[in-house]
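Dissemination and training. As part of the outreach component of the grant, students in the summer workshop were shown how a complex can be specified as a set of sequence lines and then modelled as a single object. The example used during the hands-on session is reproduced here so that future cohorts can follow it. Participants entered these lines:
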Amino acid sequence: MKLPGVILAGIEATFNRLLMEQPDLICPALDGRCICLNLTGVDLALFFRFTADHVILLDEFEQCADATISGTPLALASAGSGNNTRDLRFDGDLQAARAFGDLLQGIDLDWEEWLSRYTGDAIAFHIGETIRYCRQWGGQAKQAFAEDLRDYLQTETRQLPVRDEVEQFVRGVDELRADVERFAMRVQRLHHRIGSDGL
Amino acid sequence: MVDATDKKCYVDFGYEDVPYDEKSRRVKQVFDSVADRYDVMNDIMSCGLHRLWKRFTVSLCQLKPGNRVLDLASGTGDLAARMWSAIGHNGELVVADINPAMLSNGRDRLIDEGISGNVRYVLADAESLPFPDRFFDVITIGFGLRNVTAKQNALRSMYHCLKPGGRLLVLEFSKPTVPGLSRLYDLYSFSVLPKMGRTIAGDEESYRYLAESIRRHPDQETLKCMMQEAGFESCQFYNLAGGIVAVHRGYRF
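and obtained this result:
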């Protein structure tokens, strides 16, 4: 799959605008390097070629990328938000790949400041406040919904067990598994003894 | 492909094949004829879209204050005007065209818009640019490459004038990529466009040449290969308006 050129150019322009505001994000480890971001599942490869002061975004690269980071979009998003990188695969120059990861995590999008250039400070502040309020309300609503659903399924309809019951059950299964394994080992030892004593 | 050594060969001028030396003369005639109505015709022909295409091209230039930029085949200076505001007073803008009438119109327009001081005007042929090696940060050529006789020579010449890290942006008509658009586009180009040229600019032949020269111009992939052959790296093209227009970008590293 290839992204339309206009979208590619838009991503590149956004990236470069952010880098212009935070120029120290491009570290020497990235200068002149090309990092391939390979999105598995959607079969999309994006090449980030770094110069001293900006990045060039390509959908094809005539040479071999210095480092390749492969993963599903979800795995990349999870890694981008600072969570685990277990589902990602790194090939090539790991130092460059790490520098690229640091760059992605270091980008601080001050969208309110960006918006204020077009709308003025007052409007941008009000839009920011509204969005912050919506986000807070959304978080609270999500948490309340999760708690209500849990109460309904666990307490009222009793279709799901409560956490303590599950943990007790899991502990019981673990103990049973350990007992079975111990018992199997004991039986095996007895078999060996019977075999060696010739009984 | 036409090379500097093949000056006795025939080259395309629209759908005609003309002797190598004659093409530039006939292109000059076309632009002498349309120079005064060039901007109006551009607006009408593209429904104003050419302004967006040029804005997009400049956004791909990654211009910084202090950059030295060359706008080739500058015409009435649309790209030059947009770039000037990005490079600031510490930058340097060189506006070049092979056609004196177009260059003169462009200079008048830029001066009228208050664009002066760090701007130079050069009557130059893109095939042999009169600038030192590694001189410019950015070179642009908007709707001009298809009129150049030896495109490969011009690309090489541009490559040499770029600094390492410098980039060339080619904004040019190309091949439609959206299914069904080609037929509609042909109908517009060969039936509507020449009539518009006759009515507005009083010149039907020049606008017939425009339509024909677009069809003879290399498509997206071919132009990209030509740029790579000239030495450019990280070449990429961006289709606009369903591929009717494409912006090619290549870097010298």
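The helical segments of chain A are 5-21, 73-80, 94-106, 111-119, 121-156, 163-197. Students were then asked to discuss how this feature might be tested experimentally.
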